[in-house]
Amino acid sequence: MTQCAGFLMENRSDHPGSLLRxxxxxxxxxEKWVIERI
Length: 38
Fold this sequence. Notes:
2 helices; elongated
């Protein structure tokens, strides 16, 4: 999770399109993590 957060912070200065894509990727990661926790 920490590496993913660092990746998001690093690519935040990119164009808005990539930001949206990263946000979608992050959501998928979180959902996967939550499913694994249950």
